[in-house]
Amino acid sequence: MLRAEWIPYRLRFTFTAVTSRETMQAKDTYIIKVWDVENPECVGIGECNLFRGLSADDTPVYESQIDQMCRSGLEEIPQCSSLLFGAETALADLRGGGQRLLWPSAWTRGEEGIRINGLVWMGSKQLMLSRIKEKVAAGFRCIKLKIGGINIEEEIELIEALRSHFPVSELEIRLDANGSLSPENALRILELLSQYGIHSIEQPIHAGQWREMEKLCSETPIPIALDEELIGMRSDAEKQEMLDAIKPQYIILKPALCGGFGHADAWIAEAEKRGIGWWATSALESDIGLNAIAQWVALKNPEMPQGLGTGQLYSNNFPSPLNLRGERLWHDPSSIWALFNII
To answer: 2-95 maps to which CATH number?
Structure first.
């Protein structure tokens, strides 16, 4: 018989994290642990990563849902992305012996690293340029810029300055608008940006505007990747309807927001049927959640850079075998986890 419990945990940023939606100093998450009463020393750990203000799970009854799920020993799991994500992770960890080895691969053995993009958060033009230079100096050849936080003309000037130093052959630039553009001006702005060799832009306009997004995807000079558009869709029919209606060039998979790993696999299957590309991105998890996503991604042998470098954002993250070397995320099997008072 399985037992489970949950622990709230507040992650504290090492800087003020700014997006077009909000400014954050900290982020709340929930850690769950599960064990068999006949072998209580073996404990599986998972992270129910609730992204307040963005996740469809953000409701007043969320904590009562996680409490009921744990009372059931994870036998009754609500169809909430973050709860599915946490439960899938914890149960996989328990099956693997409670060592945080969910899905062994060359990555977990430390034989291969996962290439990732360097994330550059919003800020002043000078601050963003400084952060870009730091990422490039660290070895990143793919960077992701969040835009929409300052004047768009300044952001274009920033990208122009970046391109003057780093041509397309040396640096891939991805943009994330977080829905900050309007349907009326999006195409004009994308045309301005296209002269700088942009790889892709995530969610240029707010989710839910299928007709406008379909038109934009059909006319855009820059490939469009859907992100927030995937949130809240559970059935295969919903996935198929959205992809057929919008016809995006890419989709972005955040397992804690798009239905957990099972639904993320279904998204990939539907996307590949339609020739739509994909990559995975963490959603501000601690290293517990980041480790799970990285292990899942590693099984798929991705060729494109993934968005998995957020573990260094926090001053009180859990020390783990995860580490960055250049532009690759590695797992050091000789390192140990430090889970404070969780276990």
So the answer is: 3.30.390.10
Q: How far apart are CA 298 and CA 315, in angstroms?
A: 26
125 a catalytic residue: no
Residue 312 pLDDT level (bands cut at 50, 70, 90): confident
Question: Which residues does 337 contact at the CB level (< 8 Å), separation at least 6?
Answer: 100, 318, 319, 320, 321
DSSP state of 53: T
Q: Which of 33, 135, 239, 254 is catalytic?
A: 254
Using alpha carbons, select from 211, 208, 146 the residue that is nearest to residue 180: 146
> Residues 27, 144, 146, 239: which is the catalytic one?
146
Phi then psi for residue 10, to 5 deg, are -105, 115
What CA–CA distance (Å, rounded) separates 191 from 206?
19
Could you tell me whether strands 322-325 and 277-280 are parallel, antiparallel, or unpaired per DSSP bridges? unpaired
β-bridge mates for residue 199, sequence order: none
**What is the model's pLDDT at position 52?**
86
Residues of the chain with CATH 3.20.20.120: 114-331
Q: Pinpoint the residues of the chain covered by CATH 3.30.390.10.
A: 2-95
Pairing of strands 198-202, 172-176: parallel
H helix or E strand, kind and range, residue 107: none
CATH-assigned architecture of domain 114-331: Alpha-Beta Barrel (3.20)
**pLDDT score of 123 more than 80:** no
Helix pair 81-95, 260-273: axis angle to 10 deg: 110
Cβ neighbours around 182 below 10 Å, total: 13
Strands (E), 195-290: 198-202, 224-226, 250-253, 277-280
- DSSP code at position 178: T
For the cut 80, the answer to whether the pLDDT of residue 325 exceeds it is yes
User: Is 254 designated active site?
Assistant: yes
What contacts 301, CB < 8 A, 6 or more positions away? none
CA separation for the pair 29, 168 (Å, rounded): 38
Distance CA 281, CA 138 (A): 20
